[in-house]
Amino acid sequence: MSESQIEGMFESVTDRAKSVGLNYDFSKMKNANTKKAHRLAKFAESQGKGPDIDEALLSAHFTDNLALNDDEVLLSIAESVGLSQEEAQAVLSSDQYADEVAQDIEEARAIGVQGVPFFVLERKYAISGAQPQALFQETLQKVADEMGIKPGLQVLGDSDDGLCEDGSCAF
Question: The domain containing residue 63 runs over which residues?
Fold first, then answer.
């Protein structure tokens, strides 16, 4: 890709992020080898904290511009999601979970992943790159239809009228 194409891609992603309340600044993002972060994520997953650490790592990288190869940064993230500092340090100071990360990398290569983001749905459909929201909606609907998933409740209207915000409502 040319430099102008890359800049356009970053601008597009930045605009999309801003539309959902995230502030990305690619000029401040720290490039880092993320193998330690991936091993820490595997540890967090084993402790039932996978989604929590995934969110924290993404936030640290994309919005806080932190280096995901820095042990202090990673330990702080681990602590923020409720992981043991001692156990997290042991993971970072060793090769724990390296085989699992290598297996994930090999699987990604085998299915054609060449970059991020890359989304796999039901091991049948893939969406590569930052695509329009409509493509995600269409693909998710296709998967739901194929699986026979129907929404249980359809919310109508776009107003918050009638919502209890002062804590006085009883259910």
Answer: 31-109
| pLDDT tens-digit series, residues 62-104 | 999 999 999 999 999 999 999 999 999 999 999 999 999 999 9
CA distances from 5 to 26, 54, 74 (A): 14, 28, 32
Query: DSSP of 7-56, one letter per residue?
Result: HHHHHHHHHHHHHTT----TTTPPP---HHHHHHHHHHHHTT-HHHHHHH
Residue 126 and residue 96 share a domain: no
Q: One-letter amino acid identity for 100?
A: E
In angstroms, rounded to a whole number, what is the distance separating the alpha carbons of residues 50 and 47? 8
User: What was the pLDDT predicted at 166?
Assistant: 52
User: Can you give 108-166 as a three-state secondary structure string?
Assistant: HHHCCCCCCCEEEECCCEEEECCCCHHHHHHHHHHHHHHHCCCCCCCCCCCCCCCCCCC
Q: Is residue 86 part of a domain?
A: yes
